[in-house]
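It is worth pausing here to work through a concrete case rather than discussing structure prediction in the abstract. The textbook approach is simple: state the sequence, then state the predicted structure, then interpret. We follow exactly that order.
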Amino acid sequence: MVTNVVDLRSDTVTKPSDAMRAAMAAADVDDDVLGADPTAHRFEMEMARITGKEAALFVPSGTMANLISVLVHCDTRGSEVILGDNSHIHIYENGGISTIGGVHPKTVRNNPDGTMDIDKIVVAIRHPDGALYYPTTRLICLENTHANCGGKCLSAEYTDEVGEVAKSHGLKLHIDGARIFNASVALGVPVHRLVKAADSVSVCISKGLGAPVGSVIVGSTAFIEKAKILRKTLGGGMRQVGILCAAAYVAVRDTVGKLADDHRRAKVLADGLKKIKHFRVDTTSVETNMVFFDIVDSRISPDKLCQVLEQRNVLAMPAGSKSMRLVIHYQISDSDVQYALTCVEKAAEEILTGSKKFEHLTNGTTRNSYGH
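Step two, the predicted structure:
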């Protein structure tokens, strides 16, 4: 009998491990705004090494990491960034690049695998002759893994090709690598190789890696120096931040080796959902730790399903009006997956056979998974 909550809402929900808490308690700290926190410095150096970049900067969140990166590259108001129409930066970050930075988004359609067609990226680049009328293209953004496309991985070869396009047109390339370690493990390619073509990368430490707080921006030394100024401007300069960086260091050290198990469990979950007649799932699309599935029976809504699941200590969130997203993380076990599958099947049957019992469960009351 599972007594703990099986939380599949996102990989952002993990609790700090005992090792993380111990590292936080023992962290050697100082004032990081003054550049004096030794634990923050050690962690940033390690992230720069892993990603193959000159320098790194710890920031409070992935949204801030992407915002800072875009604003460093697009330091003139009226700049334009080319990015996917289904990307996290474009949809789930409050339009910050526009509202705060005065940067105009130029969207290109994301393919189901998270890529954008190279020829469409090229077409989206503004010609210098139109500078009197149009924004000036300065940046291209990719997302790896691509969350809204099901946690799909972008290959090093594809990223290199986009990097060549950027370079040939005098543009910069930023990668939203919130889950870049998941991509690295799934593809069997080191992180530094996946981001070789990028001028900057944001890496979230509090998603699949399980740290309680934070993201890291990596890039050239000059880029990071500018990023530090913007971090302070946006209120992200923190003092004894080594307490957080200590947990982040442990997360990178201990959790990367567990991501393959997360991916394996996601496939098991997808295979199990496919056997339930009320749902449709493309098991071949599961590459990392996310499972999307459609509800084919109109009598079952994502909201009602989530609410019935919660009564059985399984937490989930809708992905759309007729779809769900479940996310595996390192605090989900094999038995948790099997328990969740059992509960999902029973919850669907309960909704179908006990409609009066669930009349009090209304649609639209469950928070969706957007942005997590």
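Step three, interpretation. The mean pLDDT is 94. The chain has two domains: 6-11+258-353, 18-254.
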